[in-house]
Amino acid sequence: MKSARAVAHTNIALVKYWGKRDSSPADLNLPAVGSLSLTLDRLRSETTVCPAGHDSFTLNQEPASGEVAGKVLRQLDRVWQAAGHAGPRPPCEVVSRNFLPTAAGLASSASGFAALTLAAAAAFDHDPGRPALSALARRGSGSAARSLWGGFVRLERGVAADGSDCRAYPLHPQAHWDVRLLIVHTERGPKAIGSTAGMQRSRDTSPYYGPWVDTSEADLAAAEAALAARDLAVLGDIVEHSCFKMHACMMASRPPIVYWRGATLDVVHAVWRLRAEGLQGYVTSDAGPHVKVLCLSGQADDLAARLRDVPGVHAVDLVGPGPDPTVEVLA
Ligand code: ADP
Ligand code: DP6
Ligand code: CO
């Protein structure tokens, strides 16, 4: 094997993924719904995979163990197996750094598993093309399948039992539309329940889970059309609907899954108030307390300044559409 390094950017779902297909073996990680995302500038993971005497994983300069390391090593095994090499996988040293908060609802698993999959594939001389690598990244984390491309990306739900058609594809490049995403930070620290466990609980206990799954394809089709037409008002309406429908499904789980804090709702109402005043921002939020606001670049600074004044807001970051991932084989 070789040494390789990859950089992948995280993404924000505009139409959300929440839930695994009923028939999905855990190892395939097949989503119950398709999703549509925007890859983000700056927020990224940088991961190196090198041959070593024994397996190790270092995340953000700290040695990782337990489930965090276990997930990474399982993903290395999958990439090795997909590469079709004879013999056992060689031991690897994996070092990754997140240029975004980890496990805080800002999709570190997306950039993390995209970068890991790309670096491992290059290290193991496996080049099946980005679509197949997207399906492979999905097995590490569903949202990671979407970080194989910059710009606007759609993850297909797929129908094949082996998940081979459950992969993302690029809809529009980074330059398609000069939108911005404001990331409004309301709380520090990791989330109480990870996405994988939260999805399982919703599927098992939420009475809204079925309707959530059944209505998702229509949201995807409408969002895709609005995105192609660069119609922010129409897209924004679907973005908010998908977000609140997902959170309603989470909240109706038993025990309830509530990622929001008081400040989360205060920001949501502030965005709606500002919209009535002519600042066109649309909210979304993932498995965490932060609010993300989709807007046009021309209004981003004004909106950010106004949202920084909302009590409970720690910081507002401004990010634009992000690029494709990059991979290099090291000497
Ligand atoms: P998030 O909102 O950050 O995506 P998740 O619960 O979906 O939260 O995933 C967080 C988990 O993803 C971490 O606990 C860790 O297991 C894994 N992860 C995060 N960053 C990386 C990385 N750079 N490389 C490998 N795994 C990572
Ligand atoms: C709320 O991709 O983190 O951010 O596949 O179990 O790793 P696993 O889940 P993950 O889920 C992301 C959920 C979400 C919505 C989204 O990004 O589509
Ligand atoms: Co995640």
UniProtKB/TrEMBL annotation:
<dbReference type="InterPro" id="IPR036554">
    <property type="entry name" value="GHMP_kinase_C_sf"/>
</dbReference>
<feature type="domain" description="Mvd1 C-terminal">
    <location>
        <begin position="182"/>
        <end position="309"/>
    </location>
</feature>
<keyword id="KW-0444">Lipid biosynthesis</keyword>
<dbReference type="InterPro" id="IPR029765">
    <property type="entry name" value="Mev_diP_decarb"/>
</dbReference>
<dbReference type="InterPro" id="IPR041431">
    <property type="entry name" value="Mvd1_C"/>
</dbReference>
<dbReference type="Pfam" id="PF22700">
    <property type="entry name" value="MVD-like_N"/>
</dbReference>
<dbReference type="InterPro" id="IPR053859">
    <property type="entry name" value="MVD-like_N"/>
</dbReference>
<dbReference type="InterPro" id="IPR005935">
    <property type="entry name" value="Mev_decarb"/>
</dbReference>
<feature type="domain" description="Diphosphomevalonate decarboxylase-like N-terminal">
    <location>
        <begin position="8"/>
        <end position="168"/>
    </location>
</feature>
<keyword id="KW-0547">Nucleotide-binding</keyword>
<comment type="similarity">
    <text>Belongs to the diphosphomevalonate decarboxylase family.</text>
</comment>
<dbReference type="GO" id="GO:0004163">
    <property type="term" value="F:diphosphomevalonate decarboxylase activity"/>
</dbReference>
<dbReference type="Pfam" id="PF18376">
    <property type="entry name" value="MDD_C"/>
</dbReference>
<keyword id="KW-0456">Lyase</keyword>
<protein>
    <recommendedName>
        <fullName>diphosphomevalonate decarboxylase</fullName>
        <ecNumber>4.1.1.33</ecNumber>
    </recommendedName>
</protein>
<keyword id="KW-0443">Lipid metabolism</keyword>
<keyword id="KW-0067">ATP-binding</keyword>
<dbReference type="InterPro" id="IPR014721">
    <property type="entry name" value="Ribsml_uS5_D2-typ_fold_subgr"/>
</dbReference>
<dbReference type="InterPro" id="IPR020568">
    <property type="entry name" value="Ribosomal_Su5_D2-typ_SF"/>
</dbReference>
